[in-house]
What we know:
alpha+beta, binds cobalt (II) ion, 4-stranded antiparallel beta sheet, globular
Amino acid sequence: MTNIHNGRTTKDGIRIHEASDFAGMRVAGHLAATILDEIAEHVTVGQTTGELDRIIEEKVNAAGATSATIGYKGYQHASCISINHVVCHGIPGEKKLKDGDIVNIDVTVIVDGWFGDTSRMYVAGKLARKPERLIEVTHEALMKGIEAVKPGNTFGDIGHAIQTFVEGHRMSVVTDFCGHGIGRVFHAPPNVVHYGKPGTKPVLEPGMFFTIEPMVNLGRAETKTLADDWTAVTRDKSLSAQFEHSIGVTEDGCEIFTLSPAGKFHPTY
Ligand code: MF3
Ligand code: CO
Ligand code: CO
């Protein structure tokens, strides 16, 4: 048996990547983030989520990359598009965006075997105050989680940073879905939960690649999955937002592979 990785795997099944593997993730992450930059102008009132997905698939193909989601567990689209009270895994279709709808678009591409997974929030038309606050808190929660990423800290430190920040704003963190290891595979150990206690293992080590992708609800945390077996919604129909980055642990912190090349994250600027 040959192993394409020269790195090792921890006892928790977490791959420790080589310094040279960061280059592969950088390229994949850059493409995913670029597509999220470019889709922004298409998120308009009256636009369908199916058309947004078609544009995304075209961009993935034009880059000579592969969509990680098409064919994944039977999923047939190049993106997940989750509107308002949809928490995640919204399926693109004929639904037209209405004025004030908040929208998460989640794209995962494969470039040279490396997976880049990222999502961001958008608005169709005018963004109202409450959803804007939700979106800002969710983005800042992701960044608080990322700030906790450095060797010697633990996955529990990440979850704790996110949860305390979100709950400090009287919003709730979804516990039914989590981030994941990533690299040459889409979903790998560990489960990166967005809540928890400081110090809860595993310990972070340089070379670990994973996503952080908190979902935050204005109301209660509970979700349910619709009959299509994908679409997850808030049980209380409250608004939900999510941001996702793919990152790699470095010697002194982390590298974000999916930062927006255009410096964008906020839906309106
Ligand atoms: N991109 C999602 C994640 O963050 C996974 C989507 S799987 C799909 O892990 F099949 F729903 F597309
Ligand atoms: Co992900
Ligand atoms: Co994703």
